[in-house]
Design a protein that fits this description.
The protein has 358 residues and is mainly α. 65% of the residues lie in helices and 1% in strands.
Length: 358
Amino acid sequence: MKMFSSPGHRCLVAGVLILTLGAFGSLRADNRVPGEDVVQDFITHVNSLSSVSDDVKKQVRETVQQLQQDEYSRIEAITVGLALIYPEYEQAITAAQNDDVEQAIQKLSEHVDASDAFLAADSSFYLARTLMNRERHEDALPILERLSNEMADYTLHAGPSMYFTGVAQANLLENQRAIKSLARFLEDYPESPERLRVAAWRQLQMIQSIEEGGMEDILQRMDYSRRRLAIEQTDEVTQVEQDKVVSMLAKLIREMEKKECSSCNSQKNSENQSESQNEGQGQSDSQGKSDQGGSSNNPNGVVRRTFDDGPASPWSRLRQRSRDAANSAIKQKLPARYRNVVEKYYEVTSGNSDDSKK
């Protein structure tokens, strides 16, 4: 039995498999194939289409049923079946597969409100994935929410849609909603690909660990601002988040400076005690080492006089929003995991600032 009508359809299967990030997995505990009910509903639907010839219906049935039996291909069974019925939809999927973003968005958008509910659901999934691959989470989220709720009975992608809903919500700083979506994905879709379940669990743990004003909170907001600047969303929403980032960083820096100052004061007190002992033994005392002098007693140079009237660590420069000084401080103080995100943020915001001056 020949599975596909052309080499193009065989290529489509491979491409769609990549787009959907894997297959369902093995049989469920009750020995039923995941998505079996949805596939059967789709075949019944195809048989009812008066506009489709009997030959095409037969080809769709054979193709879908054979794909359904392969655990590595079953998730795209409906997609391939729809491509056999609607050649224009095959073109849309091919555009998404080839990373032809504008063409994919245009062609997929033509089908999201199709009278064929299976076509509408399938095209919605690939449209949302294409948008998310371009970090357009604001546009993808409504599509994903609709897909994982009222359209769930017409797609094999309901599980991945719920996962990506949580991812999009987290990227939009909707953390509480993201927690609910990711938890629902883990609970309701145990047959989903292991890579998605592991990713969902890790993301859930990360979001739940975020404390307001903490470094993880700051990094999440930085990434949000960076992304919106990258897609040229420089509106008030973006500016408000940028101001929050600066304010939160300044607070965190002040706290770190206090710890530095406390350490420096302890060291100075120790040095002063040593100097007093030396004075008692008749040794000369250097006045240049006092707090009013022009240099620091700290041999490590943690505290040094800078551009203001008093001693300050490099961290204080961030409060002045000087990017060069900020990057210098970041390289010295932050772990690599945080430093990379902060440097990328300042690189994007600096570029945006330069563009605004042109």
